Every structure is written in C-alpha cells, then in structure tokens.
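S., here's the first fold you wanted:
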Amino acid sequence: MKRETVFLKLSVIVLALPILAACIFLLPFLWRDAKESGGWIANSMRPIVIGMYVAAVPYFMALFQTFTLLGLIDRNEAFSYEAVKVLRVIKYCALTITVIYTALLPFFYWFAERDDSPGFLVIGFVFVFAAFVIAVFAELLQKLLKRAIDMKQEIDLTV
C-alpha cells in the first residue's frame, strides 16, 4: 500500500505545481496586462484574476487534506472518523471553489462577449463543473466511509 500512496502523494504535488506557477507567474502578468489595456478588459479581467487567487486557497487546502488522507491510509487508519472529517473538508473546499467560479461566470461571459471568444466562457464552466464533481465525489466517499465505520462498530459490539 505504501508504493501506491507514494505515487498518489507525488500526483498531489504535481497537481499543486501548475496552480502555484499560475499564481506566481501567470496571474500577475494578466493583472498587469489588464491594467495596461484599461477599459472593459480591466473591468472584466481583474475580478477573474482576484477570484482565481481566492480560489487557490481552498484548492491548496484540499490538496493538503488529500495528503492527510493518504497519510491516514499509510497508517492503516483509512476507516476512521478522522478520514470522514478530512473528506468533509475536501468537499467544502470543492464547494467553495464552485461558488467562487460560479460568481465569476458573469465576468467570464462579459469578457467572452466583448472579445468574441466563446471558448473563454467554456473555461469558466469547466472550472465550475470540475470543482462540483469533486465535491459530489467527496460527499459520496464521506457517506460510504461513515456507513462502513458504523457497520464495523456495530459488528464489533455484536461480537
């Protein structure tokens, strides 16, 4: 089990790197570019950049919680209430990201309409959809894990 969790921990790190790079390099560039362009570009891009920075916080929190969950799996504590709590935090982080990007959709629409690039609006919907799918999956895992723990405790009490 250790080998698989090491691979998954490396995967979590790989998932963190592009967002970290975007926060360090891409988003400041977009902010400066919007500032220099002014007008409607600045009015639509600045809220998007701010929202992406804000969404990065729950994203990294969810990745940290994923790391914690993998640590629990390493210690054979996957079927514990601690794991249920970790999945709940991941779910709330994903829902927070969903709400942030849903709030940003009008700005994505405004930019896509003015720039005549409908693909930009699709990007906003992809962010919303991906985060929502993760939230639903975490909720499902949380319920299944809680049910399995409750059944295990019931069996232990019966015996």
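And the second, which I think is the more interesting of the pair:
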Amino acid sequence: SGDTWEYSTDGGNSFISGTGNSFVLASGTYGANDIQIKVSGSATIIKYTSSITIDTLAPSFTSAATAEVEANTEASTTIYTAATDDNTVTYTLKAGEQQDKFTISNTGELKYKQAQTQAGTHTVTIIATDIAGNTAEKTVSVSVVDIGLSTSITWNNIG
C-alpha cells in the first residue's frame, strides 16, 4: 500500500522510521505506553499498554567446571549440580560428548546412568536455557576415582 510507519520506544517523544513490517527492541524494560507505532496518513497511534522486558542476555554459569565421584557410586547419586545467575533456567545435555553416560534434571542435577566401576575422566557439556530462550554452555569434567583401601594384619602371640 506504500504507507510508511514509525515507532517509538520512549513514549512518543521521538519516532524512528520503520522498514518492512517489524522492528527489533533492544534488551531492557519498557514501561506501559513506551512502545508506540504510527502510520503515515493516520491520526491513530498504537500504544502497547503493558510494560515489557526484552531479555537477550544468556544465563551465566556459577558452578565449577569439575566434579569428582568415587568408583561404584550408585547411579541415582547426584554427582554435580549446575548453577547459573538466573533462577528460571532449565538444563539439558549437549548431544554427543559422553551424553550416553549421563542424565540431567531440569534443575541441574547431573547423574551417571550407570555406576562407574573404573577410574577415569568423562567430559559432558551442560546447556542452560532461560525463559526467554537464551542459552549458555558449560563443559564439565567428571573424574571417577578409585579409592583404594589398605589393610594390614599384625599377628601377635602366635604359637
């Protein structure tokens, strides 16, 4: 139709020429009526009457990059707990990278699928996804250690 349009992010104090049929808001919080759209030749200004928050920041991991577990630890035991600076994240495992050995809950509890019987190191990448769909990855190295028990016997008064 050839109409031009403009949008404002500051309550109508200034307008920016629009292109196409959409625009991208910068990360941040916008109050009620901050977002406005007007089309040339129309007296109507469309106002977004609720506040809105645009979140483009990925969560940041605060948990360590290593974990240690004893060999033969029950598979149901949590061996690592992922944590971020955002409480509204869910956790998944990146495809490949030893994913077949581990399971992770939505709350970040990492467990082996089976008890590990031999010492070794396994690497897995955890993905945190926040409510806005932003993602972050953390590679974790899990060491399985074999705790050897030493036993000594002392024979006294034999014979």
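Why I say that: The chain has two domains: 5-54, 66-145. The radius of gyration is 28 Å.

Talk tomorrow,
H.
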